[in-house]
Every structure is written in structure tokens, then in C-alpha cells.
Design goal:
1 helix; 4-stranded antiparallel β-sheet; alpha+beta; 74 residues
Length: 74
């Protein structure tokens, strides 16, 4: 069995669309305030943009944990 963890930081862009930045393998001790702070820095630095425009507001964040179990075939 293999477990994958991803931190998803979800922002709103200028046009109101949601934009997700995914970070693989976040450390287990990552605190809510650390995530909040990084999201604030990303917005302030204004370094990410896509076809929806610049990121202007935090929408949410979540840790996604996925377990993959291989099925042996004969």
C-alpha cells in the first residue's frame, strides 16, 4: 500500500475563479498558521497568474491523503 499526501491551497483569482496550488508531500507538522501565512505571502508577492488573472484572495486549504492499494493480477 502506498499513501500520498498533498497540500492544496485554494485561491480566488481576479475573475472569481478558484485556482488551486498543490504541494506534494507536505510535512506532517505543518500548522494552520503556517499555511495561512504562506498563502498571504503568495498573494502579496503576486507571482502566480493564469488565464483567470492574478490570485487575489484565499478561499481555503486542505490536506488530501490518498491510499493506493495495488491489486495483484494472475
Amino acid at each position: 500500500m502506498d499513501t500520498n499526501k498533498v497540500l492544496e491551497m485554494i485561491f480566488l483569482a481576479v475573475d472569481g475563479s478558484k485556482v488551486t496550488i498543490a504541494v506534494p508531500s507536505p510535512k506532517d507538522s505543518l500548522s494552520n498558521s503556517e499555511v495561512d501565512g504562506v498563502m498571504n505571502e503568495i498573494i502579496q508577492a503576486n507571482i502566480f497568474s493564469d488565464n483567470h488573472g492574478n490570485l487575489v484572495k484565499k478561499y481555503g486549504a486542505r490536506k488530501v491523503i490518498k491510499t493506493v492499494e495495488e491489486i495483484p493480477l494472475e
